[in-house]
Design a protein that fits this description.
There is one protein chain. By secondary structure, the chain is an alpha/beta fold. It has helices at about 1-15, 55-65, 70-80, 100-105, 110-120, 145-150, 175-185; strands spanning about 50, 90-95, 130-135, 155-160, 165-170, 190-200. Helix 3 packs across helix 5 (about 110-120). The radius of gyration is 18 Å and the shape is globular. It starts with a helix and ends with a strand.
Length: about 200
């Protein structure tokens, strides 16, 4: 009887909420609510697990810009669902890095936080030091497609990169950032780079 009582007290102090609409969940319920869950668009192939839009986009924005770190377990679980196809095929999980100046302002790197449970699920190291961001580039969302390519060109450097790497990001839009990061990992010693993003623009 003690365990349900403690869980009930925890729910009163910090109740679980739907990452898509922030509605409070009932005791024992986790993840997206019954209204939001059907709106998640799973993508059958490609580097992105879900389409970027609706409740998932709301959850990612809330995590990154409103510091809703309580959404991380749900979003991390979604990332782990995509781990099966990479099991036994990678030596390390590498998140797309932020520039140190921007990291200090925000306080955390969403890509790295999402990569942590993924690395555990694959039983390989989380290796944020193998890829560094050399320049504090402009925010990609504010740029056109051609400008995005130029913005991140030469922005990354791979260092002592393992042979097989899973490169992880939260959102893929045009793919410019992931392409630039992938090139840096190859130049840093990788023989194979796989890419996984939680969400991506569907028509790309």
């Amino acid at each position: 009887m003690l365990r349900p009582v403690l869980r009930g007290l925890l729910d009163l102090i910090a109740p679980a909420r739907c990452p898509g609409c922030d509605v409070r969940r009932d005791w024992g319920q986790e993840g997206f609510c019954e209204a939001c869950a059907p709106l998640l668009e799973a993508l059958p192939s490609g580097p992105s697990l879900y389409g970027y839009g609706g409740p998932l986009a709301e959850a990612i924005r809330a995590l990154k810009y409103a510091r809703r770190l309580d959404y991380l377990p749900v979003l991390g679980a979604l990332m782990c669902e995509g781990a099966r196809r990479h099991a036994g095929k990678v030596d390390a999980v590498v998140p797309v890095p932020m520039h140190p100046r921007r990291l200090r302002r925000r306080g955390f790197n969403a890509a790295e936080l999402l990569a942590e449970p993924l690395a555990r699920a694959l039983a390989v190291p989380l290796s944020p030091t193998h890829l560094v961001r050399l320049r504090d580039t402009a925010v990609q969302a504010s740029l056109g497609e051609a400008e995005r390519e130029a913005n991140v060109r030469g922005a990354f450097e791979g260092r002592s990169v393992p042979a097989r790497v899973l490169l992880v990001d939260d959102v893929r839009t045009t793919g410019a950032t992931l392409r630039a990061a992938t090139g840096a990992l190859y130049r840093g010693g990788a023989r194979q780079v796989r890419v996984l993003a939680l969400a991506g623009v569907v028509d790309l």
